[in-house]
Amino acid sequence: MDGSKKRKKNKQQQENNDIVYSESQPEDFGHLAILYPSFRSFVHPSPPHMRLTIDWTDFNAIRQLTCVLLHRRHTLTWWIPGGQLCPTVPNRSNYIHWLEHLLSSNIIPGTISSDSKVRGFDIGTGASCIYPLLGASLHGWSFVGSDVTDVAIEWAEKNVSSNPHISNLIEIRRVQDNNAPPCVEVEDLVNSDQIALCKKTDMEVAPLPLDLHACENKSYRGPPILVGVVRDDEKFDFCMCNPPFFESLEEAGLNPKTACGGTSREMVCPGGERAFITRIIEDSTQLKQHFRWFTSMVGKKSNLKYLVSKLWGVGVSIVKTTEFVQGRTYQWGLAWSFLPPVQKSSISLSNKKNTSFTLEGLQRQHGAINVLESVKSYFSSYGLSCSLNTSSFTVDVFQQIPGTLLVKGSLQDKDSPLSGAFSVIFQKLEEALRSKFCTKSL
Ligand SMILES: C[S@@+](CC[C@H](N)C(=O)[O-])C[C@H]1O[C@@H](n2cnc3c(N)ncnc32)[C@H](O)[C@@H]1O
């Protein structure tokens, strides 16, 4: 998709009230090269259109880009030593934006601290300390950032102290690792994608059947993650994690979507992300009262499905997922809580032109077609049409994952007499469809 198409799609998503967690345009490298002489030598024209770009296989170029983007967009001073995992700024910012959205959504009761300041825990903050730096500079959140390696602790502390305007918000905490394996460097990995538009789709997720056999022999055997690291008197609004994704060095090296270097300690853990996040889930059952939200990035969709099932099995009250797209790379955000969800407030009138909701926990026999049929008969029972009719509105139904459908409504004419009542009608439709199709509604 070319830039203009992406921008158009992005605009369309915003008009449709989808939340787009990204800068609206890729950065202009020519402009950055003028502003930052240190970046200039990495920028070159690329055929066939001779657009200015960098060599995405060159760790030094990517590190320099991250450095100048953090300075330009967030006034942050930042560096990491060669070979450490180099974060891409849009990708990491998207996780922060998603958290911001979760925290402000009031799905569960409000902030934990009495002064309503948000406090987060970044599991495996890395040498880059990227999430605490972004969260503190964008939103004034305070953080504990944990890690296990000497180089991560040393450089995370350096990156914090290089930014005195936020350094009082970030504590770097070493996790004691008594069985540390020898550190093996992974060759720099190839970043195949330019920084580009990122989109997300929020979903609440219902229970799925749990395939226990799929997780045999994948239990986590590493240093503590949350239990034993979080102190008895500590409370956080959220924890976040970009886990070691891979099960082996070979898997890390073979993955063409992976970028920006990374040592084995950063990228690999026995059992991969599935085992690592499973441990976070287990820890969360012991730390229910210490966190409002537990969250993690997930790199494989099959793991996402497994982890969602696992979560329902340990008695969480809510699960949310989101999709992050950067170029051709897909990742997912997974969030859960043990706090009881706040009841939805009473219906309010608004002039929204587009609205949507998800239906979760649909039984196998109920697909998009059945739901669409029910939508039609629901409206026709009130003498309304939701077919393509300019005086009326459209309803679309999409499958997100098996068992979860997204229902979207768009008012065709915002001056229609329906406009004030459109969202009310849609909320009524949601209630009707939930009671007809969903095995579990939150
Ligand atoms: C994929 S890197 C993420 C680094 C950084 N957060 C980022 O997004 O670029 C995973 C990090 O987790 C750290 N780590 C591994 N096991 C850990 C544990 N038990 N507790 C805390 N950090 C851990 C690694 O040292 C590494 O820095």
Task: Give a nutshell description of this structure.
This protein is an alpha/beta fold. The protein is 33% helix and 18% strand.
Describe what you observe in this structure.
InterPro entries: METTL16/PsiM, METTL16/RlmF, SAM-dependent_MTases_sf. The protein has 2 domains: 77-344, Vaccinia Virus protein VP39 (Rossmann fold, 3-Layer(aba) Sandwich); 354-437, 2-Layer Sandwich (Alpha-Beta Plaits). An 8-stranded mixed sheet has the order 5-4-3-7-8-10-9-6, with helices on both faces. Strands 11-13-12 form a 3-stranded antiparallel sheet, covered by helices on one side. It is built from 13 helices and 13 strands. It has helices spanning 3-15, 29-35, 37-40, 59-74, 89-104, 130-139, 150-161, 249-254, 264-267, 272-286, 301-313, 368-380, 422-437; strands at residues 44-46, 51-53, 119-123, 142-147, 170-174, 203-204, 236-241, 291-298, 318-326, 329-337, 354-359, 393-401, 404-411. It starts with a helix and ends in a 5-residue tail after the last helix. Helix 6 (130-139) links the parallel strand 3 and strand 4. The chain is α/β, with parallel strands linked by helices and 442 residues long. It is globular. It binds S-adenosylmethionine. S-adenosylmethionine (SAM) binds next to helix 6, strand 4 and helix 9.
CATH superfamily descriptor of the largest domain: Vaccinia Virus protein VP39
Report the principal-axis shape. Answer: globular
How many domain regions? 2
> Which spans of ≥5 residues are poorly predicted at pLDDT below 50?
1-25, 182-201, 206-216, 345-349
| Bound small molecules, deduplicated | S-adenosylmethionine
- Per CATH, which architecture of the largest domain? 3-Layer(aba) Sandwich
- Our estimate of the beta-strand percent is 15-25%
How many strand units?
13
Mean pLDDT: 78
Strand order in the sheet with the most strands: 5-4-3-7-8-10-9-6
Keywords: Methyltransferase, S-adenosyl-L-methionine, Transferase
EC number: 2.1.1.-
Biased composition (Basic residues): 1-11
Family: Belongs to the methyltransferase superfamily. METTL16/RlmF family.
